[in-house]
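This part of the workshop introduces the protein records we will be handling. Backbone structure tokens are a discrete shorthand for how the chain folds in space. Once this layout is familiar, the rest of the handout is easier to follow. The record below serves as our worked example for the rest of this section.
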Amino acid sequence: MKNTDKTYALANEPIGRLIFRLSIPTVAAQLVNLLYNIVDRIYVGRIPETGSLSLAGLGVTFPIILMISAVAMLFGTGGAPRAAIAMGKGDNEKAERILNNAAVMLVIASIAVSGIFLLSKDWILMRFGASESTLPYASSYITIYLFGTIFIQLTLGLNSFITNQGYTGTSMATVCIGAVINIILDPIFIFVFGMGVRGAALATVIAQGVSCVWVLCFLTGKKTTLRLRISKMKLDREIILSIVSLGISPFVMQSTECLIQLTFNNGMQIYGNDMYVALMSILFSLTQLIWMPMQGFQMGAQPIVSYNYGAGNYDRVKKAFRMLFMICVIFSVSLIALIEIIPGVFIGMFTPDAEIISMGKTPVRIFLLGMSVMGAQGACQQTFLALGEAKVSMFLALLRKVILLWPLALILPHAAGLGIWGLFLAEPISDFIAAATTTTMFVRRSKKLFGGIF
């Protein structure tokens, strides 16, 4: 499709057909990205003799990995909707300046983040739940991973601008290229070359490097509407502040996940042992299994919402939201029902350890129960983001993790001697409250923004 056809489709193509056409590539990309994120854990958990300890070590590195992707989202997810809204208003020049400012900030941030973590990684990992037994595995993995920070940030951050221009097939290819390379290299480096967790990290860095080259080639090529240009990379304070004001919400969501994992990993060491830390690595992977396909639908709907909101076409905004809400709710409820029925099968995806599978069945059922309502939460929160509602998005980002889950994870283990079960209960309680609050706020706020959702 030509560039004019892309914008014409966002403004005129029937919503049902458009949202599925844009969402199918982004859902596929998220499913591949999910495999990308968990394949290391699948292979590492099967390393002979040291698999369980290696998996636990990998689990305590996850908060650092989340912080790296959080910074990418600050500038990528913050800038892409701003660019789409500008395009909806016919101001492609401003949209391009937003893209270029975001790119420069991603480079600066990647250098700063990798430097800080490289200097303090072992100290941080011990506070993220590593033990003397698991620290060597965690440190080996994250050291190599941090050298690829610039590839990871540019890939994640700039790919959002490709998606929001309507090039969902290209953004899907970004993820698929990296995922396929990672899946191929992982067993070679881990088992054939005997590199263990270091091999898993090296495979990830190489894969992200190739994806980064792909993104940069597209955004400097002739096909894209918005192009990376050195002449437009001069930092503009007003543009950066507008990007950060919107990107702070997904940044907080992702970075507070780091805080949550720190709390849970430490709690698992206090009330359990290294096996429970390994189980938490699996539980967080399963939450990704639920979140990431839903995010694919949300990413597919976002350019429709942003463009038409910028163009003042509120009827299409309403139709896009209603369909997104229905899809996400059906997906989250159906997948959680399946996990509740056969939890052992899902745990067994990550480890052959019979002890972890046996002890993990009840915790999985409890921990993930609240994810059944996350379809409603995600659809409403992502639409707020697409509409440029920075303050509301920020509050909702803080609500679920910081205001609810974090205090509950600290308090419930001490309540009535619940111990480790208090940690597992904290997640569903916060999920149900957050989903109800977010949905209620969206219904009320939508009346002022575009006349309500009905």
About this structure: DSSP finds 16 helices and no strands in the chain. The chain has a mean pLDDT of 86. The two ends are 32 Å apart (CA to CA).
